[in-house]
């Protein structure tokens, strides 16, 4: 098991639980339905890729470069994809005027997720 990957996944899991609870309880009184759906999508994808990172930690003992790349793709994918969705969902509360700059971060984060899964695929093929 790779301690760095497990610590990162634990942190993201902890944050996802907090943000999910915040969205379900406090945020729903502050934003409209579509914004709440955007928030929830960010939480869901953060959880999916947190679990993917935990799975990555089982491969890490092989010192495979593909696992390292997948780790960074999932990490920055969570930050860009979920992070941008959180900002987009709360843009009215936060009074963000730079939404045009935030919007493109979401597909970049999504692309990183895809690349992370591809790296995991090839790492599994390479595994003996």
From TrEMBL:
<feature type="transmembrane region" description="Helical">
    <location>
        <begin position="101"/>
        <end position="125"/>
    </location>
</feature>
<feature type="transmembrane region" description="Helical">
    <location>
        <begin position="45"/>
        <end position="62"/>
    </location>
</feature>
<dbReference type="InterPro" id="IPR006696">
    <property type="entry name" value="DUF423"/>
</dbReference>
<comment type="similarity">
    <text>Belongs to the UPF0382 family.</text>
</comment>
<protein>
    <submittedName>
        <fullName>Membrane protein</fullName>
    </submittedName>
</protein>
<dbReference type="GO" id="GO:0005886">
    <property type="term" value="C:plasma membrane"/>
</dbReference>
<keyword id="KW-0812">Transmembrane</keyword>
<keyword id="KW-0472">Membrane</keyword>
<keyword id="KW-1133">Transmembrane helix</keyword>
<dbReference type="Pfam" id="PF04241">
    <property type="entry name" value="DUF423"/>
</dbReference>
<feature type="transmembrane region" description="Helical">
    <location>
        <begin position="69"/>
        <end position="89"/>
    </location>
</feature>
């Amino acid at each position: 098991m790779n301690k760095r990957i497990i610590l990162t996944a634990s942190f993201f899991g902890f944050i996802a639980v907090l943000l999910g609870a915040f969205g379900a309880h406090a945020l729903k009184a502050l934003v409209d339905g579509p914004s709440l759906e955007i928030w929830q999508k960010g939480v869901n994808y953060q959880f999916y890729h947190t679990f993917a990172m935990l799975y990555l930690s089982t491969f890490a003992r092989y010192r495979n470069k593909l696992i390292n790349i997948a780790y960074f793709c999932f990490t920055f994918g969570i930050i860009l994809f979920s992070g941008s969705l959180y900002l987009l969902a709360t843009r009215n509360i936060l009074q963000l005027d730079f939404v045009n700059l935030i919007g493109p971060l979401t597909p970049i984060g999504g692309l990183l997720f895809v690349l992370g899964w591809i790296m995991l695929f090839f790492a599994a093929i390479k595994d003996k």
